[in-house]
Input
Amino acid sequence: MLQDYLFPETISEAVSFLQNNEGQARIIAGGTDLLLDIPEGKVKTNCLVDINRISELKKITMEDGVIYIGAAVTHNQVAGSELIQEKAAALACAASCVGSHQVRNSATVAGNVCNAQPAADTAVALVALGATVEIATPDGTQYALVEKTYAGVGKSTIDSTCQLVTRVSFPAARKNQGTAFVRLHQRNALALPMLNVAVMVELAGGRFKWARICMAPVGPGPMRALSAEQALKDAEITPEVIEKASRAVLEHANPRNSALRGSKEYRTSVLPVLVRRALEQAVANAGGTCN
Amino acid sequence: MNLKILKFTLNGEPIEITVSPDDMLVDVLRDKLELTGTKKGCGKGECGACTVIINGEAVNSCLVPAMKTMGANVETIEGIGSPEKFHPVQEAFMDLGAIQCGFCTPGMIMSAKALLDKTTSPTSKEIKRSLSGNICRCTGYVKIEEAVQAAAEKMREKQ
Output
């Protein structure tokens, strides 16, 4: 049962509220996951520290080619941001797929990362974008790659009882870079992803310079398809190369049988198709062609 | 238990009420303020029956701690029209039969109002996206979308 609900005005005040409560308090941003977990007993806390009054956490900004998304920025704000649509299309698309319109008006992208669900749409996109989280802790600011914040299914290395994610950042896509997000779901709204794939590519002279491919839920967190990425490095952009790389993602994917998400067999067959589509779209977004 | 004084604006009127930190907005509206137009369906943010508008955005009031609305502007179905003067969305739902049992209707109307407050020329895609979190189990969604379009048209005429 909650005993208190606090409104810090600054990041340092938020961290000190957490400290004062010695592990019994927890950060709330959107709360759309947390408020389901508390009554079910999955999360125990007696005080919520609401970060929505900290003005610097409510902004999307770009400085020196790096985009910063504050921890109180919602999915709909990200999905509707022209900057994100232009410079990180995969993330805008991923943010528009989460939950329902109402959920996206409350739920934050930083919260999607902190909740550490393996197929969190925006986390999958952020891993492909090479994103970093900035974390305010009692010992100062720390940084971690989004893909390194997964400590298991639903478990994050970020401890919301003593740490606060302040913002997520990633390099804006430059010329010759493209991103894409592809999702398979049972219906078009309010559906969990059966599979989701995000990719980022950089092209140079008809070749891939590099590619980052992230896919879920095929492991305990968003999974990088490292073999496929290796296969694309400096490779010519042809349908054959993309097809081969798309099949290679299965080396790093271990989908389970799931009543909600489909059978292992089905998802194993479909995953390479989604990766191929994502790669083709990212190449097109980067101004390249696959012929 | 540490009770809190919550102050916010509800349907245009300043409100001050004592709540517990774990009270959800939907329960405060229905049980303490007796505004039972906002329905509680799933309680998990999946059906949209409890949709209210906070600071211009449609949200599930079952997933909002009441305390989160401190200082906010909250609109419920009771605040947008009255039997003497219905909101254009309410009127259109009645005129076009976009209603059966009525349980989902307040949520549908609040989602539609939030959209039409932003634009009175919504596309079909925008209407569908705005209503995607509102589940109706009686009927389909065609009449509901038509009603939102009709309300938008009425609102455009008045502009």
